[in-house]
Every structure is written in structure tokens, then in C-alpha cells.
Design goal:
heterodimer; A: alpha/beta; 6-stranded mixed sheet; 4-stranded antiparallel sheet; 10 helices; 32% helix; globular; B: mainly alpha; 7% strand; elongated
């Protein structure tokens, strides 16, 4: 569905952000894009959406080169950016203006999502809080039924109840035809939704595995003392004990700790990737 | 639903679904909620619920009617108890034995505690 080949990009000369970056994403999954501040998460998403152009290499969605922004491509992709602008109009007129760009737009679903998020219908978009605007945009994105859906830090600015509502609407929206990509720092908000992890660091994709494979190969556990230090790939100590990652030799089924995995991959990229090869 | 950090989500969902069956909320030959409905309710990825369904189908607790959905198998309760018993004997009982050994407790002593427990909780 999304295919990035040898992508190179830099905002400034001699300061590359991406160097020969490769990434393949398929339909039917929710990808979590993780990376440190400034690693290039948003820039990568913008390349996919056709908002930034590569210096070299290709970025294709459904076979269309994103940079050319052909109508058939634009109809099938929606991006909810972290910072956005909404015009000074009512929800109704926003929909009648923008929905026609998306042939599969589902008006009924849109109003259902708004109801789920408890958005007042009688307000102008500009009179809403940041969180409310974001919920309108997320609802619109889901209702547009595009094959590719990109969400940049979607849970930023959402209050506590909305995070649960957000998880519900995303769970309802996944389908075998859709590819959803979410960048986030708040992994705990979304760790039961994301089924594949993509980590970007040092101009490249350094990790890309589905959660099932991760928990097949790695064991996430909390122990009171670390008995066999040779086996421990990564550990993080707290008052509850040591959260550790070890190779999953006993074929156990643990729950993935994405924050721990992220730190482990950044700390020991070679050792972790070795386990997956 | 609150998920624990200690066990894979798909297994925790399996526990939840087995509980619905044991509590008779889902009866034998009933159609269970769809994968999507469960995913929305539990706020998890539908692929995870799918994995749970395949797992429960493997143990013949639910079965699949093509194009319609999953149904509770006729002998589901019995199968669940059997599966849970095996898991208990393999995982929890050794832990329990370890504790009573370390605390110098005798099995006979525990019997009276167990009878008391049954009386106060299940009668």
C-alpha cells in the first residue's frame, strides 16, 4: 500500500534527515511510528501525504508517487497533522465544502463519531478548543474512508475520556483495505491498538516488526532481581522491580511494553535486530 | 476493561470471553459479538480479537460459521474448565506449593481454611 524506496531528504544542505530510507506498509494494519523528537516522524508522514518532496528516491501510495498529488491519490489519503488550521465555519458547511473531495465519505458515520466524541454541533470550528477541533478532524478523517490514514500525535490534546473514545473509533475503523499509520509519544494510550511497530532513528528505519513477532521472540517481564545478566537485553529499574526484556526461550506469551522496547532498540539496535533476523 | 501488564492481551481477552460463557451470559449455540464489536468494546486492535477467536476455536470453545460469525460450542463450559484446570496445575499450583513450603504450612492445616473459605464464598 505504502512503499518508500531509498528516500533521501534534508531541510538544510549537509544536514540529512533521511538517507536511503526504505519502508513498506500494508493494508489491514495499524502502524505505530515511534522516534525521538526531531528524528523525522512528522517529516516522514508528510512525505507519504505528498506535503514534502524527497531529494532522491520514491514515496508511493497505492502506486501513485505522492509528490505528484494526483486526484486518485488525494481521494485515498487523509492526514491529521499535529498542527492544523480549520476555517471559521460551522461543522455543516465544513462537511459540505470538503467531503466531496472524498468519494467514499460517509456522512452518517461522521455524525456518529462526533456524537461519540460529544462535539456540540452549533458552534463554529474556530470557537472550539484545540481538543474539540482535533476530534472534529479525526472524525472527518475516519468518515472520509480513505485507504491510507495518517494520524500525527492524535491523542495529544485529548482529555481523558476522549482517549478511550478515540480507541473505540479507531478499532471500529480498521479494515482489511485500510492502512493506518499513527505517530505517537504517548504509546500507552495506544499500545493495544497498534499491531506493528516502526522506529525511526539516525536517518533510517531501524526497526519494523509486528507486535506478534515481537512477543514471539522477546519476553517482557518484571522481576525483583536480575539473576542472569547475560540474557537480559535491556532493563529499567523502578520501585516495583526491574522491567526486563529477555529472549523468549520458553515460548511464553507476555504483553509488549512499547516504551521499554523503544528504549531497548535505541540503546542496543544491533543486539535487538539480531534476534529478528 | 482493565488489562494487566503481565499477560498477552489476546489471552486476557480469552479469559474475558471464557468468563462470559462460564457465567452463562453467552449460552451454548449462541452467536457471540462480532470481532469488530468486541474490538470496539475492549478498545483493542481487531486483529488481536481475531487471534483470541482462533485460540478459542483451537480448544473447541467456540466455532466458526462461515460468513455469520463465531458461536459458543455445545460443551464449551466443560472445555474451559478442563483448559483452566490444566493451566492452574501447570502455572499457579507450583507457586502455591512453593509458598506453603517456605512458610512451613501443612496441607491438613489448609483444609480447614479451605472449608471455611468455601462456606463464606460459595454457599
Amino acid at each position: 500500500m505504502i512503499s518508500i524506496q531509498n528516500l533521501s531528504f534534508s531541510y538544510r544542505k549537509n544536514k540529512p534527515l533521511f538517507e536511503n530510507l526504505n519502508l513498506q506498509l500494508e493494508a489491514g494494519h495499524i502502524y505505530g511510528l515511534l522516534g525521538k523528537n526531531g528524528a523525522g516522524k512528522s517529516s516522514l508522514l508528510k512525505h507519504i501525504a505528498g506535503l514534502l518532496f524527497p531529494n532522491a528516491g520514491h514515496c508511493k501510495v497505492l502506486g501513485f508517487e505522492s509528490r505528484y498529488r494526483q486526484p486518485a491519490f488525494l481521494q485515498n489519503i487523509f492526514m491529521v497533522p499535529e498542527e492544523f488550521y480549520l476555517p471559521q465555519v460551522s461543522i455543516k458547511s465544513y462537511v459540505s465544502t470538503y467531503a466531496p473531495f472524498y468519494p467514499l465519505f460517509d456522512k452518517k458515520a461522521f455524525y456518529n463519531y462526533l456524537e461519540e466524541f460529544q462535539i456540540p454541533m452549533d458552534q463554529k470550528l474556530t470557537e472550539m478548543s484545540y481538543g474539540q477541533k482535533k476530534k472534529v478532524l479525526i472524525s472527518f478523517a475516519l468518515a472520509s474512508n480513505t485507504k491510507a490514514l495518517i494520524l500525527d500525535e492524535p491523542t495529544n490534546g485529548l482529555d481523558i475520556p476522549s482517549k478511550s473514545q478515540f480507541r473505540k473509533v479507531i478499532a471500529a475503523a480498521v479494515s482489511d483495505e485500510k492502512c493506518i499509520m499513527i505517530s505517537t509519544h504517548q504509546v500507552r494510550d495506544l499500545d493495544n491498538l497498534i499491531d506493528s511497530i516502526v522506529i525511526i532513528d539516525n536517518h533510517k528505519i531501524i526497526f519494523r516488526q509486528d507486535v506478534e513477532t515481537v512477543t514471539d521472540r522477546l519476553l517482557f517481564s518484571t522481576v525483583t532481581n536480575i539473576a542472569d545478566t547475560n540474557k537480559v537485553l535491556f532493563s529499567d529499574s523502578s520501585i516495583r522491580g526491574h522491567a526486563v526484556i529477555t529472549p523468549n526461550e520458553g515460548a511464553q506469551h507476555s504483553k509488549i511494553d512499547m516504551e521499554l522496547l523503544f528504549n531497548a532498540v535505541l540503546d542496543k539496535p544491533e543486539r535487538i535486530t539480531q534476534i529478528f533476523n | 476493561m482493565e488489562f494487566k501488564d503481565t499477560q498477552a492481551i489476546y489471552l486476557q481477552i480469552a479469559d474475558y470471553m471464557c468468563e462470559q460463557i462460564l457465567l452463562d451470559k453467552w449460552k451454548p449455540e449462541d452467536r457471540i459479538p462480532s470481532v469488530r464489536e468486541l474490538a470496539v468494546q475492549l478498545e483493542v486492535n481487531p486483529n488481536t480479537v481475531m487471534r483470541t477467536c482462533e485460540y478459542l476455536q483451537h480448544y473447541e470453545i467456540i466455532y466458526n460459521k462461515r460468513g455469520i460469525g463465531y458461536f459458543v460450542a455445545a460443551g464449551a463450559s466443560k472445555k474451559i474448565k478442563q483448559l483452566k484446570k490444566e493451566q492452574f496445575l501447570a502455572n499457579e499450583l507450583p507457586q502455591f506449593f512453593r509458598s506453603i513450603y517456605l512458610l512451613d504450612l501443612e496441607l491438613d492445616e489448609l483444609k480447614t481454611h479451605y472449608e471455611k473459605f468455601k462456606k463464606s464464598h460459595f454457599r
